[in-house]
Amino acid sequence: MTTHLPTTPRLLPLVAALCACACITGVQASSHREAPFITTQPKVDGTDFYLFNSYEGVAANGSGGRSGFVTMVANYVPLQDPYGGPNYFSLDPNALYEIHIDNVGDAKEHITFQFKFKNTLKAITLPIMGKNVPIPLIQAGQVTDRNSPALNLNESFSVNIIRGDRRNGVSAPLTNAVGGSAIFDKPVDNIGSKTIPDYAGYAAKHIYSVNIPGCATPGKVFVGQRKDPFAVNLGVIFDLVNAPLGVITDPALIDAGMDDLADKNVTALALEVPTACLITDAAHPVIGGWTSASLRQGQYLTPSPGKGHGTTVVPAGGWTQVSRLGMPLVNEVVIGLPDKDRFNSSVPMNDGQFADYVTNPTLPALIEVAFGQAPGALAPSNPGRNDLVTTFLTGIKGVNQLGVITASEMMRLNTAIPAVPFAMQNRLGIVGSLLSNGSDFAGYPNGRRPKDDVVDISLVAVMGGLCMANGNADALGFGLACNPSAVPLKETAFKLHDAVDQATRPLMPGFPYLSTPIPGAK
Q1: Interatomic CA distance for residues 458 and 453, integer angstroms
Q2: The model's pTM
Q3: pLDDT by residue (tens digit) across 152-182?
Q4: Ramachandran region of residue 410, left (φ > 0), alpha (ψ -120 to 50) or beta?
Q5: Which of 39, 52, 419, 520 could cysteine-pair with 192, CB 3.0–4.6 Å?
Q6: Which range among 283-287, 289-293, 357-361 shows the weakest confidence by mean pLDDT?
Q7: What is the 3-state secondary structure (H, E, C) of 11-36?
């Protein structure tokens, strides 16, 4: 695919195309507790997926620093309270956590990064009246280094790269560039400042340079607790948008609401991989990505657990996918309640079964209910919503359309579009840049960066705001069927927001980009 961007006369049509891509994703806290079954398995609940060209240290022209690398961050275990001891939030040693890459366009994984975890109990004891008695905590003193002697429970992990099918392809381990080990330590969660006085420094010791089989240049890996980077007025949004329309259409109130995730942590699986290792060749720079988590088909709960850690469950049977995440917000507010578990167990190549949710989205009608409007008073009425099918399931032509066009839901990234330094990033991604005649084409929905305010982008688009600006894009070859007369809100839709500004939330300037987690005690 040849990389190109639209010239000025085509900006508004492309805005509509890009925002339609966001439109289907709706409004909510990405994938926190999005389906009935996954609420019972928080350790394998994928919450957010970020896929972007690395911008650490890059210049304004996109060169230097870590340009030439792609960062992938898969977050799991939602809504972690910092004080969640004494066991905190270890990952599941009986699960597979995976990041999948399609670099062909057939909606199948061609590269998979597979994470497996191990919990090692040291059974630290203290002498109590002549007996050595195991302690009840996961730490017995101050923790400052990897696998500290004071850690009673140490988490470690391995990462394999699998080329081809995720279960039957060729697998090889990533190894530490220093020493060659295929086993990596994970930092313990941020218990508090007395146990871990310098958590940022401690966590940084767990960023590893790794050799990736088949890649000439090393990458990076980090797995550990982070401050949840996603910001959303969650309670208000789920309570049928419990805010006056005048508030969420006032630009002056863009950050006047409550970020319900401001005091939550999450567990991040972060990889930085040379771009050349992810694409087939320079002429085909677009990749698609999604995450998953899988459990064994069966498990036996023993009535008499043995001594040790994790002895209650005995898994058995083949692997079964229970979590899936590509574009944000899909399973929460696009997929109907009867099919949410089905979506989590499905793969992109089978997304045709969910077509009705794309061509006949219910979220605009629910927003009408929220504001007490009659049917059709606010919701766009473009028949069939072909704009969503074209832009959301196939990618945007000339921006991030991926090779063979197979309709499927995944995050699509054009790796040839240069990264933009953090300070220059538009909080509304490509959409905001085009509306302001900017030059930031490296953000959502061309991949997703932590700064991109996907909630606000989606709010604007779900009510057809940019369709009004676009006119009829069919004549320009986008096939969007985006008629401005079918957009009741018109100019008001441009101003929609959830009163929480994603761009102001704390982030790091470099890998792993997500901020230090909130401590259990300061």
Answers
A1: 9
A2: 0.90
A3: 999 999 999 999 999 999 999 999 999 999 9
A4: beta
A5: 520
A6: 357-361
A7: HHHHHHHHHHHHHCCCCCCCCCCCCC
**pLDDT digits 0-9 by tens, 12-28:** 333 333 333 333 333 34
DSSP states along 258-314: --TTTT-EEEEEEEEEEGGGTSS-TT--EEEEEEEEEEEEEEEE-SS--SSSS-SEE
Q: Which contiguous run of DSSP H or E holds residue 462?
A: helix 454-462
Q: Report how far residue 99's alpha carbon sits from residue 324's, in angstroms, rounded to the nearest whole number.
A: 10
C-alpha to C-alpha distance for 417 and 440, rounded to whole angstroms: 9
How far is 425 from 423, CA to CA, in rounded Å? Answer: 6
β-strands 286-301, 219-227 pairing:
unpaired
Instruction: Calculate helix-pair angle for 454-462, 11-23, nearest 10 degrees.
Output: 100
Burial of 176 from C-beta contacts in 10 A (0-12 / 13-18 / 19+) = middle
Tokens 């730490």: give the residue: 139
- The Cα–Cα gap between 243 and 293 comes to 35
Q: Three-state SS for 317?
A: strand
Among 211, 239, 209, 240, which residue's Cα sits nearest to residue 222?
A: 209
Cα–Cα distance measured from residue 248 to residue 233, given in angstroms and rounded to the nearest whole number: 11
Token pair listed for 458? 């989606």
Q: Measured on CA atoms in the order 477, 392, 287, 52, is the torsion positive or negative?
A: positive
Contact 464, 194 (CB under 8 A): no
Q: Which two tokens stand for residue 51?
A: 């896929």
The answer to whether 16 touches 435, Cβ cutoff 8 Å, is no
